[in-house]
From TrEMBL:
Belongs to the major facilitator superfamily. Sugar transporter (TC 2.A.1.1) family. It comes from Anthurium amnicola. Residues 133-557 form the Major facilitator superfamily (MFS) profile domain. Residues 76-115 are annotated as: Disordered. This is Putative plastidic glucose transporter 1. The chain crosses the membrane at residues 169-187, 226-247, 259-280, 286-310, 371-394, 406-427, 436-455, 467-491, 503-523, 535-554.
Amino acid sequence: LCVRANPVRAPTATMAARASAAAVFPFRPMALNQRSHRKLSSTSSSAFCSRKRRTLDARYLHRHLFLLRPGRRDLRVSSEGKGRTRGEPEPGGPDTQTLLDADGDAAGDDGRGSSVGDAAGGMDLGWLPAFPHALTASMANFLFGYHIGVMNGPIESIARELRFEGDTFLEGLVVSIFIAGAFIGSIGSGSLVDNLGCRRTLQIDTIPLIIGALLSAHADSTDEMLWGRFLVGLGIGVNTVLVPLYISEVSPTRYRGSLGTLCQIGTCLGIITSLCLGILSENDPHWWRVMLYIASIPGLILIFGMQFAVESPRWLYKVGRLDEAKRVICTIWGQSEVDSSIEEIQSVIKSNGTDSGTGWLELLVEPHNKVAFIGGSLFVLQQFAGINGVLYFSSLTFQDVGISSGALASLFVGITNFAGALFALYLMDKQGRQRLLIGSYLGMAFSMFLVVYAISFSVDEQTRHNLSILGTLTYIFTFALGAGPVTGLIIPELSSARIRAKVLGFSFSVHWVCNFLVGLFFLELVERFGVGPVYGTFGGVSLLSAVFAMYFIIETKGRSLEEIEMSLDPSLRTEDK
């Protein structure tokens, strides 16, 4: 069934929806007068909504609709390269190039999904058609979070039952071997997605997750446990690439950021669930087997649920399944968006080529190398800002204030992480990716310096404990507000459709390498230099990350993936003319 998005009000519905954002971004005068707007509005309505579309240059109309939208502050550059004032119309409309606003203020909105709210009596429900599909995919992130936390409590019981108690190397290997599997999975994910699509790949990839969980739960030897954890890591590596890619390609433009935050929320809920179950392992030495058996249930739900989810319309068009792509767009974005969306996708894919066999060497070619550099750098900075080290050390911080249960302390941390992700869900499409990323890293830096002050200077013991707890929880909250969700979301938004999966695969492989290095050397660095210098380094890296986001990250809020790609690739803008 098609979800009709009030098709008879194409430009005016967009403007009405944008007016609701006035509390965040002030209204600015329209570039064209009202008479021109009314004339163009009636023309565009008939053009977009008639059964037999009239012969109208949609690209020409698309450019002029940009000038009609209030609240835009794009820098418009003439063909001679001379800058003009923001919001000032430039003569020769068809030759105007609309570039991404690098400062990220008041990014545009193509209105996809916004008019559904008008039909619902003012309630904004434009996100609703795509929500079940994004929610189903985010079940993979729930599994990711669950497997992160499942070994946190019962590792001692596992070591005792499998007869490697006291062997710190094997204990560490059981916990971290899934990182090796995740690295391999993330590298191989790009080719799988290009050939099979996100929907089918998610279903196939869940099989090693289920087998790995069952093998670990039934393990009678260390080798069986290691193989089970490796298979789980293999599935996790593919899933962490697939889910943000899938959600970014099926979400309406206006809600892509909020729906993309479901990745972080799913991870947080998975961690919290495993930590809650882990509390029971303190009294039952065999409870860890039940916890690992439970891990197979979300996998079965994911396989079944993705059978009813839609495939990415961009991938469908890319492999020549045009009718299916139109049906998917009709279902999740609305009938009024079918023609314009297909036209955008067609323009980009024709320029890129439909060959799905892109090679890894294309990451070295402009403009893909710039996006690959940004993606890899974001994950390097995220990991070396110390999130895994802080999470590891948080249980010791809570012990200082009398919370002796490690599982209970980790549960406090998980709830704080979840609260930050909920705030990110609300703010992602209001404040934009760049602002959240900068604010997040500045908050993380402040938190680390607060902990350093508490443990390095002469303050009374109670104040030291309070400041340490406050700094730790603030760090985790601000991480979940931006550095966590934005990093995985911004990379597919900046990537070309031709090589999006491989850019994400490369970026996440960097993530897993850095994750492993931090886990390997964190305790040794703390023993050699102390907590203060290590946390101070984390704060310094967080400041560096904020500067990096300020200069290298452009705002993508409110832009379709095709708009972003055409704005970043000069060759596509030239061909569009």
